[in-house]
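forwarding from the other thread:

> can someone predict this with adenosine-5'-triphosphate?

sure thing
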Amino acid sequence: MSKSKKEKSRHLKRFSYTVDTAIEKPFNWKQMWRLLIYLKPYSKTYLPAAVIAMMVSTAVRLIVPILIGKVAIDVAIKNEDVTMLTYLVIGIGILYLVSYAGNVYRIKWVNILGQNVIFDLRQHLFSHVQRLSHRFFDNRSAGSILVRIMNDINSLQELFTNGIINLLMDIVTLIGIIVILFALSPKLALAIMIVLPLMFYISTKLRRNIRRSWQDVRIQQSRLNSHLNEGIQGMRITQSFSQEKENAEFFNGINEDNYQSWRQATKKSALFRPFVEMSNAIGTVILISYGAYLILLGPDNGGIELGTFVSFAFFLGMFWEPISRLGQMYNQLLMAMAASERIFEYLDEQPNVEEKDDAHEFKEMAGHIEFDKVEFSYDEDRVALHEISVEIKQGQTIALVGHTGSGKSTIANLISRFYDPSKGTVKIDGYDLRDVKLNSIRQKISVVLQDTFIFSGTILENIRFGRPNATDQEVIDAARVVGADDFIQRLAEGYNTEVEERGNVLSAGERQLMSFARALLADPSILILDEATASIDTETEVKIQKALGKLLKGRTAIIIAHRLSTIREADNIFVLENGKVLENGSHSELMAQRGEYFGLVRSQFQMLDAI
Ligand SMILES: Nc1ncnc2c1ncn2[C@@H]1O[C@H](COP(=O)(O)OP(=O)(O)OP(=O)(O)O)[C@@H](O)[C@H]1O
């Protein structure tokens, strides 16, 4: 192995991307049937319309060669019947027009049908995924979910647009041709069928081989995309650790793989045409040699007439296309099996937190929270919360403190019912959360995370996310109350400033103020706040503390607290360690106890507060 190759493989190990690689799966009727159900809404409109248009054009294509061979040549020309010939020419012209119209409408309706099915399927999958619980997203990367909703559904597009109708058309055409050929001359028909196995071989085996190479190109491109995406997102880190050279080498490696896969695929594709032409040529040779012999024999001696020969020539020309497409269709079906299996796997996924039919709906929520001997694990090996019993009274502000991984966010997750406890109960206003409608819980709870998520759009719309039906004035009022109005007004376009997905144009403090405005607008009964640990300047810090005071007023608040100023003002502080509450009480009570909290404050918070 050359040095550069060795280098490459070392770098290839550094990053790894999981790509869904199963390209095809065995055909499965149950799964196919489940896919076909998506055609049902169109079973009285586009589907029958496309089938009728297809039948019309196929019937014309099958009739014309007989008219030319058996009628025009064998009857009209033989008997020198000019009138009949004239009628035939006009008739064939009209038939071609009808076939043309049939094709135009078939293509139009088939495309509308396919696009509608893909639209419905994507809509169905996205809305289903949106309903799934946090546990589902814990185990999967955003990229892999994206690939299923985009690529896997895209790969079904061909099946629904052309595949199904073409399959019908090809079967009808092939059966039609075979029946007609045998009716015209069983001997010549049998002779020509010798090329059938070769044709099938080319259309299935070779095509599959070629398609696999293109699939490989797709996989290499996905890797390239994933690396590019990561590379661009992590550009700042790359530059600050001076890793540009390593990254470039790794990129070259993937780029090389991509190039090689293209070369392979184009090389194999180039083989296809010559193979097709060869099998056509064999068919033609058989037709001419054996056909000529049969013509010479004459119809009275078991041979054929010239017209039959001409019809055969026409049909032979029409033979290849449906066989070739059937082979392609078979490959397409196997691919559709793999894609639909992945799609159905998501569709069969049920939310872990289920809603009961007779679930209670919170019209109003006071905000009294109780944890009664709650135990919880994200996975089987580790317990994240052990027998937690906590009471948070209406309107209280409590702080959760503790080392990283001690279970603070887990408590917050259970209050919003993103997960259900493995043992014990979480209650709000006396209702076990398992007996309450999910939406009615979450509408009354606002969660403000450390890293505020900004959606692409204007600042106005980003704040309005808290309450979609809020008026512009209500949005502005909320921003004023939390003190976000100042910085927003200073932006070139004020509230109409466009912010990108990650909100790079805003500082951490500004993003936090914006998320406060969002939460205030939602007017929740319970507020869960994961305080930002990032250091911000003193002026913003003061602003945030002030905003927080306004935000907390009249609500129950659970703060995952990092700042001593917040902790001091909390009504009750819970100190967590390895999923257990070690102690709780007010700041002065806990300081007096000189226990764990005392140690934490001394070692950690004094330092943070001093920043
Ligand atoms: N989605 C998850 N899947 C599996 N384990 C998880 C998940 N989220 C958290 N954990 C684990 O559960 C434990 C408690 O995590 P939790 O996020 O509640 O801690 P935390 O106190 O909020 O930490 P931090 O202050 O770092 O945010 C940790 O051991 C963590 O590794």
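The two ends are 54 Å apart (CA to CA). thats all i got for now
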